[in-house]
From TrEMBL:
Name of this protein: carnosine N-methyltransferase
Residue ranges of the TM segments: none
Enzyme class: transferase
S-adenosyl-L-methionine among keywords: yes
Family: Belongs to the carnosine N-methyltransferase family.
Region (Disordered): 296-323
Keywords: Methyltransferase, S-adenosyl-L-methionine, Transferase
Length: 323
């Protein structure tokens, strides 16, 4: 399966992805589970989305609106952007976080899937030459091919040199469950979630975590659908709130919606040649945790000290919009 990558990975790598890969005799590999194979197939497609020229239109529709908002809210002519901390939970193969870091922001991606983590480590730390490697991401798709060659067509990656970030860039990836890793309050100026919030068993726990970790005055930028990942999984808690209900809960927490668009059409790891293609009608919002929180009518002093980095000069009038 990993032979789709031209440089073959050592077998140990596979064992780390799935400990059940070996039987008692570690030299004898057994068939991978359907679960592992599905994860592998979606990870391979994620290479197209994040690190190929073919993924450029998808990145324009999903990542660009988020990046534009970060630049609008923390413009480099008014902020020392190296001091603006941005967290990208559920970072996948890391392209969104990498692009934010490339602009000079202090950016951290967080991811818990071993498939994504091993793959992002590979692309971010081991790939240098542009379009040097080849994948066949659609080889498993036997239906909806107009031409046989559509199924076997290659994709080259990475479309950029991932190692081309300036030396002093503050960019990191952290492995682990978002809610477990990020328990420290008021650390982040911005949390950027893309196709992430529906991965929760209970999306309100994500809202709670994001509220907690944002500095007062910090912003949460979100783009994505609500395709709840645990909806049909046996023995898993799954609370499938509508966007309307999430929004109500966020307002009760104290979030102020500054930008809101309820219809941003995007794709996700789309096979542009397929006869079956999905379009997500995504929600996009920018919601701010107010800088001065009121508790029982009294200002919370603690929050005064942890505000986002001061702008170099005053922010432009009317930069916040409600749509
Ligand atoms: C639908 S993918 C989106 C990936 C990327 N943000 C993008 O837009 O391409 C959701 C990602 O969130 C990760 N994820 C799900 N639950 C997570 C959690 N509790 N902590 C960290 N990452 C998580 C998944 O492994 C997956 O890579």
């Amino acid at each position: 399966m990993l032979s789709y990558v031209q440089c073959s990975l050592p077998l140990k790598f596979c064992a780390a992805i799935s400990p059940s890969f070996y039987q008692e005799d570690p030299r004898k590999a057994r068939t991978s589970s359907t679960f592992d194979m599905d994860k592998l197939k979606s990870t391979i497609k994620q290479f197209v989305r994040d690190w190929s020229e073919a993924g450029q239109p998808e990145r324009e529709s999903c990542y660009k609106p988020i990046i534009q908002e970060i630049q609008r809210l923390f413009p480099s002519d008014q902020y020392d952007v190296s001091k603006v901390s941005v967290l990208v939970p559920g970072a996948g193969l890391g392209r969104l976080a990498w692009e934010i870091a490339r602009l000079g922001y202090a950016c951290q991606g967080n991811e818990w899937s071993f498939f994504m983590l091993f793959s992002s480590n590979f692309v971010l730390n081991r790939c240098e030459e542009e379009n040097a490697l080849t994948l066949y991401p659609w080889i498993h798709q036997f239906s909806n091919n107009k031409k046989s060659s559509d199924q076997t067509r290659p994709i080259r990656f990475p479309d950029v040199n991932p190692q081309s970030l300036p030396l002093n860039t503050d960019f990191s990836m952290v492995a682990g469950d978002f809610m477990e890793v990020y328990s420290e309050s008021e650390c982040w100026d911005c949390v950027a979630t893309c196709f992430f919030i529906d991965t929760a068993n209970n999306v309100l726990e994500y809202v709670d975590t994001i509220w907690n970790i944002l500095k007062p005055g910090g912003v949460w930028i979100n783009l994505g659908p609500l395709l709840y990942h645990f909806e049909s999984i046996a023995n898993e808690l799954s609370i499938e709130l509508s966007y309307e209900d999430i929004r109500t809960a966020m307002i009760k927490y104290g979030f102020l919606f500054e930008v809101e668009k309820e219809s941003m059409q995007t794709t996700y790891t789309e096979n542009e040649c397929s006869m079956l293609r999905y379009i997500y009608d995504c929600v996009f919002f920018v919601a701010r945790k107010p800088s001065e929180l009121q508790f029982n009518g009294q200002e919370d002093e603690k929050h005064q000290h942890n505000s986002p980095p001061a702008a170099k000069s005053s922010r432009r009038e009317g930069s916040n919009r409600l749509t």
